[in-house]
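Hi team,

Filling in the usual template for the complex we talked about on Friday. All components are listed, including any nucleic acid strands or ligand strings, so the model treats them as one assembly.

SUBMITTER: L.P.
PURPOSE: interface mapping
COMPONENTS: two
RESIDUES: 564
SEQUENCES:
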Amino acid sequence: MVALSKNSSRPAVPHVFIGEQPSVIVAHPMGGHGAPLGLERPLPLLGGGYRLAPGGMPSTLGIDHVPGLRHFIAEACRHRALCGRGGYHQPPIALVGQNGVGKGFVAHWIARNAGVPLFRMPVGHDFGASHAVHDVEQTLPPVPMVAMAAARCANPVIVVELDVDNPIAAEVEETLISMIDPRTNSRWIDDGRQTILDLSHVSWIVEVQGRRLHSSGVRKPNELRPIEAVLPDRLENTIRDSGAVFRLDAPRQLEELRILDVAIDICAASMVSDPDVLASVLADIREIDGPSFDYVGCDEIVRTAKWSLSRHFADEHLG
Amino acid sequence: MVKHAVQVPTPDAANDRIEGWPPSGLAGAVTEIVVRLEIDDTALRLVRAIEYAGAPVTEIEAWRLECENDSRTADSYEALSSKQEFFSYWSVGVQVFGREWLNRTTIGMIDAFIEERDEERERLAGEAEKERLRQEDARVAETRIAAYFREKKGNFLLELERGSIKAKPIWSIAFEESWERDRFWDWLAWQADRFEEFADFMRDGCKLELERKLLREMLVTEQAVKKQGLGSGGRRPLRFWRGEL
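RESULT (copied from the run log):
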C-alpha cells in the first residue's frame, strides 16, 4: 500500500507500508446487508514469496512423472512473480485420466508446495440446483465461498471433481465455467446471498475421473466396462483458452519415476529425508501386487507409502 | 568447459502433452525445464536446469562422474547419452539417494555398452576383412591369366586370357588335332606361373614369335624328359610328367 503525504512543504514522498501478507476483499455485498461468513474483512493471499522463485516450487521434486506439469508450474510461478502479486495462483488446469493414475496426488502436491489450502468440490448433475419451494428454505453458500471463509484464505486450490459415471447437466457446466473463466470469475454473483464474489485468486483444478478395470484386466460379468475420461466440451475450451489440459496416464516407462515421485512426496510431507527410509518405503511399494499389465493405483501407492512410514516411526519409537 | 551435451525436457515430450499451454502470445520466450547430460574436460555431469529464453535461471548439478581417464569419460558419455528416457528418473533418484546410487546404476550400463561396442567393432572389423579378401579375390580374378580350350572353324585353340572369359585373348595357338593341343597342354599346364612373362613378351613381340619360343621349349623339355627315361612315349610324351626337371 502506498500513501502520498498531502499539504506538505517538502516534495511528496511516498510512505510505503508493507503488510505481513498481501490481502484482498473477495466478497462485495450488492444490498445493504454485510457480506456473509465474515468475508467483508480482507483475506490474506497465502503462498508466494520464496516458493515462486525458480529454486522453490518449480524445483521441488515429486512431479517429474507427469509430462509437462513442472513446466506449467514454473511458468505460473514466473508470471505470478513478474506481475508483482503476492500469493500463489495458477491458471486453471484440467487433470484428465482413469482412476488411480495420480490426479489427486498432483493436486495435493501443488497445494502443499504452494502453501495454500486445498478443498474438494464434488460436482454431480444437481450441483448448484435449488429445490426450494418456500422462502424459508435457504441454500448453503457455494463451496468456494465456504472454503475461503473456512481457511481465511483468498487463494485456495479448489479441486472440481467430475466423474464420467455421473455426467453433469448443461446448467452445471455453465456455472462451473462462470467460476473458472478468468474473464468473468472476479465478479461472480451469488444470487442466494446477493453478493459479488471474487474467485479470480482461486487456483482451479478440474479432475475428470475415468473408469478402469479394477483387478486383473479381465472384466467380470457384473463389473462395469471401463470408460475413457472426457472433459465436457465448453469447459475444456475455457480451460484451454486460459490454462492447460493434462491427460494423465501411467506408462510403463515412467512407472519407476511415478513410484519414486510419490514416495519422495510422502516422505517430504512427513519431514523424512533419510535415504534409507525412502529406500525401504520404495521397497514396500514395489511389493504391491499390481495387475501384471496395468498400473498400480496411486491411492494404493500412497497408502502403502504411509503404512511403510508409520511402521518405520513405530520401529524408531520402540527402538 | 562443456564439450558436448544431450538434453531432454523433463519429462519427455512435455510440450506434446500440455494442450493450450503456454498461451500463443507468450510463444518464443518460455520457461524450459531440462535435464542435461554434459561432458567437460574432466567429468560427466547430469544437470537439472530451469532456463528462460535459453539462459539458465537455476541449475543443479545432480550427479558428477569422474573417470580414471579421458577415454573412459568419453565412453561413459557415449553409453549414457543414448539412455535419455532415464535422465529424469536418474536426476530425481540421485538427489534423494546420493551419487553412489547412480554410480551403481550406471556402471553396469557403461561396462555393457563398452563390451557391446567392442564386440560390434570386432564384428565390423571381421566383416571388413572378409570384404577386403573378397575384393582382393575379385581383383586377382580380374587380373589373373588363365588358359582356355576352344574350338573354332575346325581348329583346336588354346588361348591365354586375362580376367573374365569375355576378355580379348592375350595370346592363342591353333592346332589341327585335339591331341596336338593336349600334347602342348601337357607342357604348358606346368608353366602357369610364367603366364605373366608371356603377356609381357606379347607387349613387344608378336604371336608367332611366342608360339615358336614355347613350342621350342616344349620340344626341349620333351627331349630332356625322354633322355631321363621318364617320357610316356606315343603322341603325348609329357602325359605323366609333372613339371620336374
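MY TAKE: Residues 11-18, 21-27 of chain B have pLDDT under 50 and may be disordered. Helices of chain B lie at 14-17, 70-81, 87-97, 99-143, 178-188, 195-204, 207-227.

Thanks, L.
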